[in-house]
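hey so u asked for the seq, here:
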Amino acid sequence: MKNITEFKGDWNKTKGKLKQKFAMLTDSDLLLIEGKQDELLGRLQSKLGKTKEEVRKIISEL
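ran it, structure tokens below
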């Protein structure tokens, strides 16, 4: 997965792609707060029923 600076820079585009791929995701689910990347991954993991590694792979492939 990208480092947090790269991640934040592309986040709006990535967020849109995630919402297209997984319609059940909301803006609240995809809220990226600095220093809370693990919390975001945990929310996505729970919502999508995937492991953290699977979520990281999904994001890196977008």
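Residues 34 and 53 are 20 Å apart (CA to CA). The mean pLDDT is 82.
lmk if thats what u needed
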